[in-house]
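Weekly modeling sync, notes
Attendees: S.R. (lead), two postdocs, one rotation student

Agenda item 3: backlog of single-chain predictions. S.R. asked that every request posted to the team notebook include the full sequence so nobody has to chase files. The rotation student volunteered to paste the first one in as an example of the format we agreed on. Action items at the bottom.

Example entry:
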Amino acid sequence: MQLKAFISLCGAAVLMSGPAQAQLALTPAGVADGFTLTTFVSGYSPAAYGPLAQGILPDGNVITGSALIGNVGMGTIYIFKDADNQTLSSALSAAPYTFTTGNPQYAMATAGGQVYGAQAFGGIYEHFDNSGAHTPVAGLPSTLRSDLGMWGDLANGHIVSSSNEGIVDINPLNGAVRVIVASPNCCDGVTVSPDGKTVYAESGGNILAFDYASGALLNTFPGGGHGPDGTGVISGGKLSGDVVVNNNDGTVGLIDIKTGTETIIAMGGTRGDFVSPDTTNGTLFLSQTERIDRLSCGTGCSIGGGGGSGVPEPATFALFGLGLAALGLRRRRGN
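Predicted structure, as returned to the notebook:
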């Protein structure tokens, strides 16, 4: 991703302050494919280092972090109910945290029913409890540090993360680490296919597919100049196996892994970054500069694993009209 050095954030925020009021909306192609799009939480300042990754806590609430440019040195860990159309004032709790790296946003992952996270650009890996309190994951090598992007492997409860050692597989229960791709700080937007066989990650403006077991590069999907970032894989339905991509240019793409073609399924947003799966209902959180949106692929499928049909309660997921809905040098954030 781009714009990742924290020192460049203030300038980037100023540049983004104009279009930051834009609203991500489905395109006709996205509607035709059966996607729906809503707002999970809005109200972050468009001139701030906005919301990024989310996790589903054991009690079913959603945890997320946000670091504000106007309050350099401190950020906030928020906990929300798992319901749409909230604002920051809806938070169940809001606890400050201290920046420890040059890119203080938290990458987060839900694995084995627990939430883990790490501040980007060199943070340690931590476990979050229902209160939002976080403690280091025990047993990890003292030299292991995060880079950008992490994902919970739902098949075995492990975490797959971009790190200073490359893309690594972490067992958070015993601290065991296996290097999947030995390329330090290579990648962003890490995700794992629901069958646990393929790891996807952004690198150099493209989406790369690696074999989970061997680390072999299986495919390279061009990013099309959209600034691809967070990714999530669809499971079930006619789009099963295709990859959703949250793009820095305010679009959301869908990569057909059979043809390599990317279709823009949403546009008009601010700056897409991390994505995170809602493991309770099969939807995908999409970070934007000033909000967190939620994408569903409809009945019979999920994005990122879990959740059965992938369709929340009807009152939660209203279609915003046909296409009007409420999804390196590296990017501003820190899946």
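Discussion: group reviewed the output briefly. The chain has one domain: 6-303.
Action items: rotation student to repeat for the remaining queue; S.R. to check formatting next week.
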